[in-house]
Write a structure and sequence with these properties.
4 helices; 118 residues; disordered N terminus; two-stranded antiparallel sheet; elongated
Amino acid sequence: MADGRHEAGVDNAEIIINGEPLGQPVPTQAQYPWKAFLRTALQVGPVALMALLGVLPVIINDFLETFRAQLPPEAYAWLAATALTITLAAGFLARAMATLKAVEFFRKHLSAFAPDKK
């Protein structure tokens, strides 16, 4: 049952500093930062692959046909590596943003970007 402080079905562990509870529930994003990484990778990865391996080669080949040239086969490997790099960078950034220090920073300085409304 939701009572304003706890949500139904959500484990609301509290932040403890110097042995004293801070009184603010820890967002699930901070409780499970690797899940934040995986969610972000699943959101970014397919889009990056589709854009860099599906759309971009078509645009580049259309441009190169003007000069009677084609995209070399090794360029696809570079595009795949770029998509993987973008996916991993986004995932690790999400993982870093899920730490308690980052959550507290956003709560204090940029509350619009905080994962909760504390």
